[in-house]
Queue: 3 jobs
Job 1
Amino acid sequence: MSIICDHVNYIYSRGTSDEIHALKDVCFKIEDGEFIGIIGATGSGKSTLIQHLNGLLKATSGHIYINGEDIYDSDYSLKKLRSRVGLVFQYPEHQLFEETVLKDVCFGPKNQGLTSTESQMRAYEALENVKMGEDCYDVSPFDLSGGQKRRVAIAGVLAMKPEVLILDEPTAGLDPEGREEILHLLKSLHDEQGITIILVSHSMEDMADYAERLLVMDKGSLIMNGSPREIFQNSAILEEIGLSVPQVTGVLREMRQKGFDVDISATTIEEAADSIMRALGL
């Protein structure tokens, strides 16, 4: 599934004294099967942007195209779109409400009109995908750990068989183990099932490790669009808008200033380690 954002503007409280121009002439294309990261400081427009991609918000002007179809056409089914483009909000476990894990994950497929049996089969598959064992199926979701709740919430979206999965800060508030579980899960869904992943995160390390391409937002505008390696070469611009480069990139730049012949474009721990070993002749 391809997504095109075509000169999209969005204004909150338009025509009032509280008017806020949240998105400003945003343009980009996402190809089928990509792993996209969206970064920007608080208030840059990230969350507003992703809510346009499955029609939760409608652009004040501009267009969103899914596989070449304008989602704002009068005969376009937004309900079908939201089944194909799944959106996981920040702290999605706050949306868990059913008595058991299995019932919660079945909720989405049932809303799609599937039978009880079909919904359960979807739920079993989704829970298996997020590595939740059968011993959890009849447990209350409120009795799970933070990371487990997050995985169940993601399973609830996966059970609707989306082609695109959008996640807004999915690791927020988790301990390091829970955070790694979620990120490895997303990589697995992308690599093994070909699901397009669109990830909003404040962690530059996570973006360097997992995203193939980054969209950088600032004050409602898309100011950069490129690979992590390309984006993180622009440290001055990132710092100006309240962001940073991955820690390893910063360390390598300090080493370069001290005379070590290291690759300052490296963004991951593995790349940095290789570069340092070469520089030291090891």
Job 2
Amino acid sequence: MKAKIETSAGFRSVSKIIIVCHVYFKFQCSAPSFSTGLLWVKKLGYYQLQQPKEQADDWIIIADESIGIGQEKLLVVLGIRRCNIDFLRPLQLQDLKPILVKSKEKWTGDDIAKELKTVKKQLGEILYAVTDAGSTLKKGLKNSDIKHVYDITHAIAICLEKIYKNDTEFQEYTNLMGQMRFKKCCSKYAHLIPPNQRSKSRFLNIDIITNWGIKVLRALEKNDASEDEKGQLLWVKEKEGLIVEMDKIMEVIRQISIILKSGGLSKKNKRKCISILKTCKKDRMRKFREYFINYLNNNAVHIDKRGEKLLCCSDVIESTFGKYKNEISKNLMTGITDLALIIPAFTSDLSEEEINKAIDYCTIKDIKQWSKTNLCESLSVKRNAILKKVERK
């Protein structure tokens, strides 16, 4: 079970690895098949999801929607009590309790509000929810009367988008990077090409193109490149002002992220962040300072008690979706199936006692009933209903 949950290996690969280990170490027991491993993971996820959550007045939830092929979207809600948060380190999946895993072809704000009201009855009082700025999630939180704390990672991306999206110099820089990548990817200069730019989350990953630009500038200064190679990279020198500025903003973001992602948002940490932001004095850096101070002010209003720290980072649920998407990437056209139970399985501490309880806790029939209740028809079910296999005569 650990070999699957704690690595990126596929179910078939894990089964084969165990067989190899059995042969090499001469174990006297049989290795589980990949289908057995898959069932165990589903059982573990079902067990984690079905465990009763204690009623309390200090619950904090982290919610997000996944996006895949087709209209299917998976809504996931994880929770943690404020008294259990360790603000000396970032959250880990094992710190959280899985509250909700449910799919629909289309989530509306009213749909999410309905689910969140059920969650409130299950948990007790929810102090606030940490999410991105998705319109349906925001509406769902508003309609269910739950305070919204905006995730810092997405807030930073929005700040950067406001600054650079319509900036002529930035657009020219990224366009030249794209052209170089396209023209030189199959040439003898392929080792110089810029990294691929992710169009959907470009501003979440702006550090990637910044780091490449800084490395090129250093290579040009230190004469690490041949004259021929320098000729291919000289255009980057013309964008030095922009690249250095972005690098300075990235350094400010790094320092702020360390403070807020681990230590939470408090009045003390807010002052620390504003002190760091004072270095952003000119042009686009000044704009970033203004946007981010606005973020701090808007979210700090939720601090009700002296010395209180707010959880303001939902990276842990993004990581969860990343691991889940790694699993379904082997067959994206299948859509959302009961493999979604691997998401609550990630929150398990994977102790021998817990795994044994999970395996004995439910049957295949229970998992099928859960799927029928909580998941919409997957792409594979719809496809098979229409494009049935033609029998050869």
Job 3
Amino acid sequence: MTQGSSTVANNVLEGMLAQPEITAGAIYLLDERKSTLEQVACKGLPEDSAREPSISAGEGRLGRVASTGRPVISDVQLGDDSMSVHCVYPLNDRGTVRGVLEAYLSAPPDSVPGFSRVLDVLTTNAAATLRGAQELDALQQSVRAADESYDKFVDAWSQTLSCRDETRRKHSLRAAELTLETGRELGLSETDLVHARRGALLHDVGLTRVPESILEKPGKLTESEWEIMRLHPVYSYEMLQHIPALYPAIDIPYCHHERWNGTGYPRGIEGTEIPLSARIFAVADVWIALCSRRPYRSEISPQEASTVVSDASGSLFDPQVLEVFLGVVRDADAA
């Protein structure tokens, strides 16, 4: 059972124990895959009276109630010398027994006017509330599984894009890492960081639609070739916009070539019109490129690269983002 169901079950028990006649209780939910009743909450029972956290369905009073759907009430000794009334009720929701609730009472339910009705309402409400918690848990598990699948997909796609150039792949991974570290310093939420990582790894996905004759040209590109090259962020947008889980990651692939002063591409937007994640990645992308050897030039030191990007503060790069980024790389060098 998940944390969500356990939290709800404990809240249900707290509400139940607010009734003065109820001194202790526990909730078990049915795990149909294991054919067991799993304890998700227990309050008020002495340690020597606590049950095993897992009971085979059909075993003892609890299992019998779960299988028959009928409550069982009997006197029991609770602790060393105190007697109590032990009630086991099915958690029946929409005709389905989802588990059992056991309660220890200071007096038989029928001896307190209206109390049997109170117990019926408590168990009905508890069953519905726990069913909602289980459905939410299942949804969250599905979302987590989908997120993991998309992350594996993004990683695999990134590897495919970079399979001909291991240096480019290392560049993408390092740029993603520095983007996340800078993003945390700037207060991006964990959700935004997930999308930023995906966007960083897919930042050049649009290059797959650029002819290899341009990508692999050994000399300088002509102006017409540059016009095609500058379309790769648009291609990235067109490729990702129809994938719902990846659409929130589209800012970096679409906008990482935009510049603070509006001289970038493909749209020429400027300042804070550029999404924050793209402004962060733009600095990381250029800084790492400067530190990397290319066929047409040698790499420079991290310190020299920091000086180069600093000179572009307020023109190519967001000054605040740049300041935080340089602090991150300084800390990394000092570590």
